[in-house]
Task: inverse folding
C-alpha cells in the first residue's frame, strides 16, 4: 500500500509541472503521429513484398533483420528526438523558467548528432535482444526469453537518464550512458529496483476505466439490443487509452528530468525531493 500511495503522490507532483506547461503533452502527440507514418512506411512495403512470409517460412533471414534494424533506428530516433524536446522544456520549468514548444524543439535540434548516435546504439541493442528471443522461440525454450527480458530491464536501468543527459549536457551516446549510470549510482543505484511508480498509477486507472467503459458498452448493447452502444463505448475506450498513454508518457518525461535535476544539480524545482527518493528507495 505504501508503494501505491507514493506512486499516487509522485504522479500528482509530476502533474503539477504539467499543469504549469500543458503544451508539454504536444511532444508525445507529435511522436505518436510520426510513429504511425513510420510504421505504415515499413509495414506496407513489407507486406506487399511478402517479406513476412519469408520470415515465417525461413525462420528470419538476414534481410528481415536489416528491415527490423532500420525500423528500430527510425523509431528510436523519433522517440528520442521528441523526448529530448520534452525533457529540455521540462528542465527549463524546473529551473524556474517558462518554456515553450519552440524552446524544446530548439534543444532537440541542437542535439541531433547525439540523438542519432543514441538511436543507433538502442536499435542495435533492440535487434540483439530480439534475435535472442527469436532463437529461443525457434528452439522451443523459454530461457532465451528470460535472458532477453532481464537484459532489457538492466539496459533500461543503466540508460534511465541518458535522454536528460543528452538534452542538458549534449554528451555523445557512450559518454551519456556512463554519465547516466554515474548519476544513478550516486543516489539510488542499488535501490533502483523499486521502479518508477507512475506506470502503476496509470495502469490502475487504465484497468478501472477500461472495465467501466467496456462494461457500460456491453450492458447497454444488451439492454437496447443494438450493437451501436458497444461501438460507441469501444471508441471511447480507445480514446481513453490514448489520452491516458499520452499523459503517462509526458509525466514520465517530466519525472526523468526531475531525477536528473536532483542528482546532477541538487534541486528538483516543483517536485519534492522526498517523492523522488521514495520512488526509488525500497
Result:
Amino acid at each position: 500500500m505504501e508503494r501505491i500511495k507514493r506512486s499516487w503522490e509522485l504522479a500528482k507532483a509530476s502533474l503539477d509541472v504539467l499543469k504549469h506547461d500543458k503544451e508539454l503533452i504536444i511532444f508525445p502527440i507529435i511522436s505518436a503521429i510520426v510513429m504511425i507514418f513510420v510504421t505504415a512506411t515499413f509495414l506496407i512495403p513489407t507486406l506487399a513484398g511478402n517479406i513476412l512470409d519469408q520470415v515465417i517460412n525461413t525462420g528470419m533471414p538476414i534481410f528481415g533483420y536489416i528491415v527490423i534494424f532500420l525500423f528500430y533506428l527510425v523509431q528510436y530516433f523519433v522517440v528520442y528526438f521528441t523526448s529530448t524536446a520534452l525533457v529540455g522544456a521540462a528542465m527549463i520549468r524546473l529551473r524556474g523558467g517558462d518554456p515553450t514548444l519552440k524552446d524544446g524543439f530548439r534543444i532537440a535540434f541542437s542535439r541531433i548528432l547525439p540523438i542519432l548516435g543514441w538511436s543507433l546504439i538502442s536499435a542495435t541493442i533492440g535487434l540483439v535482444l530480439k534475435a535472442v528471443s527469436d532463437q529461443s522461440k525457434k528452439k522451443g525454450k523459454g530461457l532465451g526469453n528470460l535472458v532477453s527480458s532481464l537484459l532489457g530491464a538492466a539496459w533500461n536501468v543503466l540508460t534511465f537518464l541518458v535522454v536528460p543527459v543528452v538534452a542538458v549536457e549534449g554528451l555523445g551516446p557512450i559518454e551519456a550512458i556512463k554519465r547516466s549510470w554515474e548519476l544513478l549510482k550516486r543516489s539510488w543505484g542499488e535501490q533502483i529496483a523499486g521502479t518508477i511508480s507512475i506506470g502503476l498509477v496509470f495502469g490502475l486507472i487504465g484497468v478501472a476505466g477500461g472495465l467501466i467503459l467496456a462494461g457500460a458498452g456491453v450492458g447497454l448493447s444488451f439492454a437496447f439490443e443494438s450493437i451501436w452502444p458497444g461501438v460507441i463505448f469501444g471508441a471511447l475506450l480507445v480514446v481513453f487509452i490514448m489520452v491516458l498513454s499520452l499523459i503517462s508518457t509526458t509525466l514520465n518525461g517530466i519525472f526523468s528530468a526531475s531525477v536528473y535535476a536532483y542528482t546532477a544539480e541538487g534541486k528538483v524545482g516543483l517536485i519534492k525531493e522526498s517523492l523522488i527518493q521514495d520512488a526509488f528507495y525500497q
Residues 2-280 form one domain.
